[in-house]
Amino acid sequence: MENVETGAGRTDRSMRDRLWYLLTLSRPRFWLYLAGPIVVAVAAAASTPEELFLPDAVLLFGYFLFPANVLLYGVNDLYDREIDEENPKKDDKEARWQGDRLVLVTVIASGLAGVLLFAVIPPLAWPWLVGFFLLAIGYSAPPRFKTIPIADSVSNGLYILPGAAAYAIVAGTQPPVLAVAGAWLWTMGMHTFSAIPDIEPDRRAGIQTTATWLGERRTYAYVAACWITAATAFFVVDSRLGALMAVYPVFVAGVVKSNISVSRAYWWFPALNTVVGTLVTLGALWQIVPIWVVLP
Fold it and tell me: What pLDDT was estimated at residue 202?
């Protein structure tokens, strides 16, 4: 007997497909790129266990875990819908823009939800949030920093701004300048390294980036310079932190010296960042509650 799908069944499947697409659009592999710095910053700023769970910081984490990613990557995919036709990364691990009215409304609502944060977050953190929203939208929408060499790299400091806001909320003061500078340089290297697999697709699409401008070999050098400088800045803040961040220039050197495809190494980034972020967070937490106190 022929299976006849009802209108309600088609509607349910359509809604599931849309929700799945929104999940894919938000790049789950990269969720911690925005939310992770908040965890690290809260641990670094807190002086008591109670400060680790301040409501404002928890709210900030919740927003930057999912809605902010929908906003960031939704705007990106919307404005890159023609360029992405040439991008092989969109064939499996990511998705090309398939937006309809519901998807577009969801992206806009994610941005409006971020505006509501200003009603509850202390003013001390406002500049960091303003910076995030300006860069998150301006990266892909006009003036499209992503198509301006060097500006595309520098603008990716947006990823550490939620962490700076969280630090200000918990500590009641602004984060150390060198820590912000080191984290910003780290994001510059991270972004430019991730742009190396896109060099040829971007060139075919006529897109200028730091990576297309420098070429692959010089881009590796640029990335290494960013990460070495970042590790140096962190070393001044805390020598242990600087030593840990030195894993990044070692990582890029290993990719260059080996036969590993940069397209493959690119997808190791979330795991590497999670390990480094976890170690930094544990180190900060042990300053609040020494490890020998919790060990049996």
Answer: 85
